[in-house]
Amino acid sequence: MKDLKAIVLAYQQAHNAQDVDQAMQYFTPNVRFEMAGIWVRQGLEEIRAMEEWEKVMDGEIEFGDLKMRNNRLECKATERNSWLKLVGIEVITYDSYRFEFEDDQINRIRAKISPKGEMAIDKAINRVMRWALEAYPDEIDAIIPRGQFNYGKTQAERWLALLKEWQQLGK
Prior knowledge:
Helix content is 47%, strand content 30%. The protein has helices at residues 4-16, 20-24, 44-56, 82-86, 115-135, 137-143, 153-168, and strands spanning 27-35, 39-42, 60-69, 72-80, 92-102, 105-113.
């Protein structure tokens, strides 16, 4: 068995370098990522879409206070990216990030955003959505179909364009 902390830190490094192909090497084919109480993404295709989103958004995550517990790694985390910055959030903290492994690869992730971070994101989304639904309803339908936040390179590029205009208007 490999050093599981080293696997997570190597994933962090690939993610922060926006090396999607390298980051994907750390996941099992049936990987499951749960953002507690918010959404679940399952499988390599959905995880790749998230990594591609993060590449466009210049995403950076930092894992700290890593502890092994029964073949699981638990830690805290912080996240920064262009989406957050454009909506006025410098950093989001996670109260917990739990990794589970299968054959020295990440098989499950469960992350819990801090209550303060969750409130900041909700507030920012509400502000942006009020403006965007009036100014660009078709674009919102395209980037958040049926109210479901989607990931991927194209979605990230569309969000960036929308948020840059929103910011220029001083919203």
